[in-house]
Amino acid sequence: MARPYSDDLRERAAAAVAAGRTCREVASLFGVSVSSVVKWSQRRRATGTAAAWPMGRQQPRRLEAHREWLLERLRSTPELTLRGLASELRERGVVVGHVAVWRVLKDAGFSFKKNAVRKRTGPPRHRPAPGPVEEIPEKA
């Protein structure tokens, strides 16, 4: 995600517009787009500052109330899948996706580790040696 322009640049551009310069002049002077200067000057008039709004948003976890149940369920049956936990929650009346379950588990310190069952194909040096080649008897 792109970063916002610095607050110093925003304030100087908005101050230049407030001092009587046009938005086009200020944009070419500071090397930014005209629309940015317009928005910064509007924000400064409305709020008193041209500073950028905070980026991102923090949402409360929907499953925080069910966190202990999820952790206890995993302690009792560790081979459960995320989709399985989501379906069990659905049976309890909580409709969420498997990603929401993963976020709660990740916050609790769980991580995804590959194991021997999930092993993918690898380079030839890690494969077992091939067995001997048997000759096929010729038919008469």
Give structural notes.
It contains six helices and no strands. Helix 1 (7-18) packs across helix 3. By secondary structure, it is mostly helical. The protein is elongated, with a radius of gyration of 30 Å. It has helices spanning 7-18, 23-30, 34-47, 67-76, 82-91, 98-107. The model has no long low-confidence stretch (mean pLDDT 85). Among the domains are: 7-47; 64-112.
Précis, in short:
By secondary structure, the chain is an all-alpha fold.
Terminal residue distance: 73 Å
* Fraction in helix: 40-55%
Mean of residue pLDDT? 85
| Total count of strands | 0
What gyration radius follows from the Cα positions, in whole Å?
30 Å
- Fraction in beta strands: under 5%
**Biggest sheet features:** none
Query: Which regions have little confidence, pLDDT < 50, spanning 5+ residues?
Result: none
Shape: elongated
User: Which structural category do the helix and sheet elements fall into?
Assistant: mainly alpha
Helix-strand string: HHHHHH
Helical run tally: 6
Give a quick set of tags describing it.
6 helices; mainly alpha; about 140 residues
What is this structure's SSE topology?
Blueprint: H1 7-18, H2 23-30, H3 34-47, H4 67-76, H5 82-91, H6 98-107
